[in-house]
Design brief:
The chain is mostly beta strands. The protein has two domains: about 130 residues, Elongation Factor Tu (Ef-tu), domain 3, CATH 2.40.30; about 100 residues, Jelly Rolls (Sandwich). The longest helix is centred in the middle third of the chain and has 13 residues. The radius of gyration is 23 Å and the shape is globular.
Length: about 250
């Protein structure tokens, strides 16, 4: 799905009968191949490698682990319905090519639900047509390799936000404050963020730490780990604080 609203989304169907309901009016379908994807369900690659131990077996452990980008290949075929022409197919080709150099969102809906990842076309889209049957291959790169679920919000109560990340990877929270606020403190363990200002309503996304107003005076943001967690909250009297997260999976 393109971020540019002037471009339509491309929907790849799995070809099952429930998913084909309502598609009969289309001039063609983009149906996933039997072995349709690679890179989405596979594990990610660790970027670090150990340093060899001189005159000893093996390597030293890396000081930390970070994950490489995710590269997803989608293989499909285009089924043209009766009455369709090459004109519709060429227009669809134009749409695919227009996505080059654009920020895209990859959305996968399967038995696990709906998960998304921001991406871009990282290789030329390939077409192979023969006797009305066209094979299509799309390769995208996700700089942030995590897969994200639908946003979930949690409200502060008694100075705490009790939350749960249903995923398998830590995820950045977004905090929203309604009402008049002049100070805000958010902490988890040894990590803390403090904000000062004079605003009616406030949003702070920990991914980029750019508040909608005011200024950050203590900048030690944290991510919400998998499972249950609690965030300590201190805010101006009368201010209501909520936190929104997207569960994340590796």
């Amino acid at each position: 799905m393109p971020k540019d609203a002037s471009l339509p989304s491309i929907i790849f169907w799995d070809g099952s009968i429930p998913n084909r309901i309502g598609q009969d009016d289309s001039v063609f379908e983009v149906a996933l191949d039997r072995y349709s994807t690679s890179g989405w369900y596979e594990s990610l690659t660790v970027k670090e490698s150990g340093i060899g131990r001189p005159q000893d077996d093996g390597d030293y452990w890396p000081s930390r682990f970070t994950l490489d980008k995710r590269v997803v290949t989608i293989r499909a075929h285009i089924v043209q319905h009766e009455g369709s022409s090459t004109l519709e197919l060429e227009r669809f080709n134009d749409i695919c090519n227009a996505m080059a150099g654009q920020r895209l969102t990859l959305i996968v809906e399967d038995v696990l639900g709906r998960r998304t990842s921001e991406c871009y076309l990282s290789s030329q889209t390939t077409w192979k047509s023969h006797l009305g049957f066209t094979n299509l291959t799309v390769i995208v790169t996700c700089p942030d390799p995590l897969k994200y679920g639908e946003p979930v919000s949690f409200a502060e109560s008694g100075g705490l936000i009790r939350c749960r990340n249903e995923g398998t990877a830590p995820t950045w929270p977004i905090f929203h404050v309604s009402g008049h606020v002049t100070s805000l403190s958010l902490s988890m363990g040894e990590s803390q963020v403090k904000w000062e200002g004079d605003e009616n309503g406030l949003s702070i996304d920990f991914r980029d730490m750019t508040p909608s107003g005011g200024r950050i005076v203590v900048d030690l943001p944290f991510r919400i780990p998998p499972g249950s967690a609690s965030v300590n909250v201190t805010a101006s009297p009368g201010a209501n604080v909520t936190m929104t997260i997207r569960p994340a999976w590796r």
